[in-house]
Amino acid sequence: MNPETWRKRRADIHILNDFFEDQKIDLDKLRQMRADVTLVNALTWLNGKGGNRCLQDLRKLKMHGGIALAMFFNIDDVSKSPIVTSAAKKFELAIRSKSKYATMCDQDKLLSFIVAQQEVNGWRLMDMTIAFIVAFTAARMMELTRMLIGEINIDEDKMIIKIKVKKGKKEIEYNVEVSKQKGKNCPVKAMINWLKDDECMKRKQDRFVGIDQQYGGATVLHVMMTKLKKYGATQEEVNAFTRHAPGSNVIDVYYNKPVGRDLSTLLLSGGDF
User: By residue range, what is the domain housing residue 159?
Assistant: First the structure.
């Protein structure tokens, strides 16, 4: 074992020794006890004492005390025992990944500078806002893993976007804060307009060609498929043209399903089955 590692472990063994002295546990009595139960009792005893460094001492006791007990009883790592793991969850000993800066304010400064220098329309400004968030995470050697529309919070003064990035195997949450700007070029207003149903690109195209909203869904595609089949196109050709799965016949089955008889009507009329 590395001497430096052994020195660090010995430096934290005094917590376990204090527990033995307080509970009057000698070596003979310790040999008759279970290692995992002893460690859980030590964690409970230390948590009851409290103090400013209680959480740090609990983590040290779980790690170094568990190794010391494992060496004494000649068993595997005690800190990985089920009851020790359960106690660690109760005391919240797991180290949580936290971002160094809770809010990324650089985005707001950069967007404010761009708005002051040039006039950008709403769609372009919204695209630049999302692109800056992706570029910011890439500049910090992180991977943007999640950014949901439902996690965008907009109030009177600012917009907060919750994103989740990954660095290695750790996932860290950030709050991207963007302030509202005066004038037409405002990224927050652009995002609000982008989130509206009326700004949906497909609905705009449907309105442009004169299709009512009630027929603007998948019905347009279904009508085209049935029309192609009417003029002799095969199932595979229709699926390839409409980008469906090669063997898909969901639409065909839906529109050509057999009409079932109403059994309740037959029962009331006394008809034959």
Answer: 103-198
